[in-house]
């Protein structure tokens, strides 16, 4: 297996886990920056044409994993692969952000939910949606219904 | 940084890179299986409620990376972070699949585009779409226009 390498850092308004909005109905509207290391800047060529990016990052302040455990979203236990829990076998996270602008190796984006200083592993263009009429969201939709959201 | 660990293997009809449909308008309708290792099966609890999953996997037959290079899609060079090229600084891939059924540690899915035997790193539930009216797809949309697609 490969050895993950850092390609940059995320700059966000969140310095502690408790600062990041979470739970049912949490909105991720915060703006931040993806600061790509200078040696990887050439990889950003033509990225300005995409409105949305998939940021793959490391849960670098999470330790160990729990295959089945309670989530803060509904207080009930679920399998880790049915959740976004940071305590996963591979501490890999992804966030969809809206690209607002680029200044050299810095991408200004909306929708960050990472802690400030988080390690970026990859960026990919967001290309397509799942047909809305086919999308089912399991326990999360049930929790929203219970809460009347 | 963490050391990636294998959580399972993908079973697909594709034994060589040339077998995977790619380029403009390529459809990924092939069915396959995500075979999760028995020791991680508890992490699949409640996954049946989700129609679509994000599979994070390793480009385990790709070597090295190229920050700026031609893609087979339009024959023009683009930055690697504006493409889905396998030759990335971190050889991490993702594919959105539709979950058709589960048989213990085996998830039967539609939409695989990996080679048979590819290493799975993570599975996450697909939760939401980007608003269609806000989505722009840069060089890819331009290439589609040129091809009249």
> Helical region count of chain A?
1
Listing every helix as H and every strand as E from the N terminus to the C terminus, the arrangement of chain A reads EEEEEEEEH
Going across the biggest sheet of chain A, name each strand in turn.
1-2-7-6-3-8
Mean pLDDT of chain A: 94
Q: Describe the largest sheet of chain A.
A: 6 strands, antiparallel, barrel
- What share of residues are in beta strands of chain A? 25-35%
The multimeric state of the shown protein is: homodimer
Principal-axis shape of chain A: globular
Would you report the number of β strands of chain A?
A: 8
Which two protein chains have the largest interface (Cβ within 8 Å of the partner's Cβ), and how many residues from each?
Answer: A-B, 63 and 63 residues
Low-confidence runs of chain A (pLDDT<50, min 5 residues)? Answer: none
Give the secondary structure arrangement, pairings included.
The structure is a homodimer of 149-residue chains.
Chain A: E1 8-11, E2 31-36, E3 52-58, E4 68-70, E5 77-79, E6 92-103, E7 106-110, E8 119-125, H1 138-147
Antiparallel strand pairs in A: 1-2, 1-8, 2-7, 3-6, 3-8, 4-5, 6-7
Question: How would you characterize the overall build of this protein?
Answer:
- 2 copies of one chain form a homodimer.
- By secondary structure, chain A is mainly beta.
- Helix content of chain A is 7%, strand content 32%.
- The first copy, chain A, is built from 1 helix and 8 strands; from the N terminus they run E-E-E-E-E-E-E-E-H.
- The radius of gyration of chain A is 16 Å and the shape is globular.
- The model of chain A has no long low-confidence stretch (mean pLDDT 94).
- The interface between A and B is large, with 63 and 63 residues.
């Amino acid at each position: 297996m490969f050895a993950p390498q850092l390609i940059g850092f995320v700059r966000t308004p969140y310095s502690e886990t408790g600062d990041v909005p979470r739970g049912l109905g949490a909105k991720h509207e915060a703006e931040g920056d993806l600061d790509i290391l200078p040696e990887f800047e050439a990889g950003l060529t033509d990225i300005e044409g995409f409105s949305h990016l998939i940021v793959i990052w490391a849960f670098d302040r999470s330790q160990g994993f729990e295959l089945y455990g309670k989530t803060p979203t509904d207080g009930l236990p679920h399998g880790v692969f049915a959740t976004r829990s940071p305590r996963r076998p591979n501490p890999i996270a992804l966030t969809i952000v809206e690209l607002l602008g680029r200044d050299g190796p810095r991408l200004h984006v909306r929708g960050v939910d990472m802690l400030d200083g988080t390690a970026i592993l990859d960026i990919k263009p967001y290309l397509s949606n799942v047909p809305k009429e086919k999308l089912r969201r399991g326990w999360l939709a049930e929790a929203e219904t219970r809460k009347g959201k």
